[in-house]
Amino acid sequence: xxxxxxxxxxxxxxxxxxxxxxxxxxxxxxxxxxxxxxxxxxxxxxxxxxxxxxxxxxxxxxxxxxxxxxxxxxxxxxxxxxxxxxxx
Length: 88
Prior knowledge:
Elements: H1 5-9, E1 14-23, H2 27-39, E2 47-50, E3 56-65, H3 68-79, E4 84-87
Antiparallel strand pairs: 1-3, 1-4, 2-3
Helix pairs in contact: 2-3
């Protein structure tokens, strides 16, 4: 199996922070936490920042990943939320 650069840099288990940017709608945070809870149950405390005009929210949430596949899987699931514009 060929590893990409990010996968080579990480040693598992590790803490990994996602930054999700989406439309400023009340359900955004709940949708993000629900997806993460389904894959990795735990207590998550997302940090939320609003854009200057209030149109977007930036949500940072840290997980404890056991494999690179968990990181990738969550990235794609978070990206598929209809009100999400970007996942970093």
